[in-house]
Inverse folding.
């Protein structure tokens, strides 16, 4: 019998604990039956602790207020985890993506805990990690905008590259090293010579963001191989959702299509519309992050849909969904064209499929509809 994170059997009355084991014989008090448990890897070294402490795993998420962090926290809470999130101090207490969890008295303060820190503040991060003692750490925080990284390269590298290294150093010092997932990016490949790309494609970044992610990605590999730690990279291709920030091109397009339909905006300005991207649904990528840390061996996995569409096709789909012809509403402006923008990016997620059983189910056409519908709904509610 395999015990997953959400299976609670009651406190066993009798158990036999060999010094070193991967399975445990347990008498369940409610049924008096004897079951053999295969232990999750995090309790292999100390099986007794599994029986005497909280059987539900705990996780810490950096970037919990972001698109992916908010989906991941919902997924983990749904699986019975206790979730700790790191949030930055800001002048507004609004955390719209976390509202559902924050306002739930059964969740917030009981199984969801938010802690103030910043990636540049390693003392606070150390304190939170030492006190929370998470079984799993999902490191999603960072300056996530590729185009902006050309304008703020120093802070992008400081937070995304050095910030990740600082967290790994803290984790290396802990008596029980948590599993660690780093949100890497397809930007580590820059403008690749091969298509599609996979986990073995050489790193060749061409943006400050890609360069910082490459450093962190390679450091994760070094810590895994040199220190024997359960550290993994999720090499993420673009993934979107109604929770995507409005300064990303996909959300800019869906919001504009909805606003133009409702008469709240007249034009949409875009840069390069011929760039092609492999766009998936963020919630499915957050689920894959969890799956990566549940596998028995730490490794890197590329997550992508394997299908690529141009910005032009995305725009056309968004406007068609609200019954409009995009060509009547879109204007092009060279100022929005990113330096060194790769023409076509396509990921091969075969390894994630074969080893984890994960595939991206939602493709661009359904994703666009979901995003436009949510934008229409929230705009209609807010203008009432
Ligand atoms: P996002 O929505 O921009 O969220 C970024 C998160 O990082 C936010 O919670 C943000 O907090 C936090 N953060 C930023 N700087 C911080 C700092 N100095 N200290 C502490 N927290 C900080 O990004 P996402 O789309 O969820 O992406 C998650 C991760 O995946 C990122 O590392 C991103 O680079 C990577 N990734 C994403 C994609 C994609 O297509 N979405 C593709 C490849 C890789 P605030 O809410 O306070 O700003």
């Amino acid at each position: 019998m395999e015990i997953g994170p959400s299976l609670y059997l009651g406190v066993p009355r009798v158990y036999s604990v060999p010094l070193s084991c991967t399975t445990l014989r347990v008498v369940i008090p409610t049924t008096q039956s004897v079951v053999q448990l295969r232990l999750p890897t995090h309790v292999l070294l100390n099986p007794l602790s599994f029986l005497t402490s909280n059987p539900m795993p705990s996780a810490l998420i950096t970037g919990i207020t972001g698109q992916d962090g908010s989906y991941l926290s919902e997924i983990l809470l749904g699986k019975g985890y206790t979730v700790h999130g790191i949030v930055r101090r800001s002048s507004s207490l609004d955390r719209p993506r976390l509202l559902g969890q924050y306002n739930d008295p059964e969740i917030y303060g009981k199984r969801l805990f938010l802690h103030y820190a910043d990636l540049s503040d390693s003392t606070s991060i150390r304190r939170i990690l030492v006190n929370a003692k998470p079984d799993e750490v999902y490191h999603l925080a960072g300056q996530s905008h590729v185009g902006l990284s050309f304008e703020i390269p120093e802070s992008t590298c400081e937070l995304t590259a050095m910030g990740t290294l600082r967290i790994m150093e803290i984790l290396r010092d802990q008596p029980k090293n948590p599993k660690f997932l780093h949100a890497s990016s397809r930007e580590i490949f820059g403008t690749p010579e091969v298509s599609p790309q996979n986990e073995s494609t050489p790193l060749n970044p061409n943006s400050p963001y890609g360069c910082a992610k490459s450093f962190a990605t390679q450091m994760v590999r070094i810590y895994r191989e040199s220190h024997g730690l359960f550290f993994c990279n999720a090499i993420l291709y673009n993934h979107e959702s109604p929770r995507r920030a409005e300064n990303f091109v996909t959300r800019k397009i869906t919001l504009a299509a909805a606003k133009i339909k409702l008469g709240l905006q007249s034009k949409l300005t875009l840069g390069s519309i011929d760039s092609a991207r492999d766009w998936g649904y963020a919630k499915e990528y957050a689920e894959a992050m969890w799956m990566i840390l549940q596998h028995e061996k730490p490794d890197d996995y590329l997550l992508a849909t394997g299908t690529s569409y141009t910005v032009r096709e995305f725009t056309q789909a968004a406007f068609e969904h609200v019954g409009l012809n995009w060509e009547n509403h879109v204007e092009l402006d060279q100022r929005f064209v990113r330096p060194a923008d790769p023409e076509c990016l396509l990921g091969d997620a075969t390894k994630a499929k074969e080893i984890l059983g994960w595939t991206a189910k939602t493709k661009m056409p359904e994703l666009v509809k979901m995003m436009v519908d949510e934008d229409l709904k929230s705009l209609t509610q807010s203008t009432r």
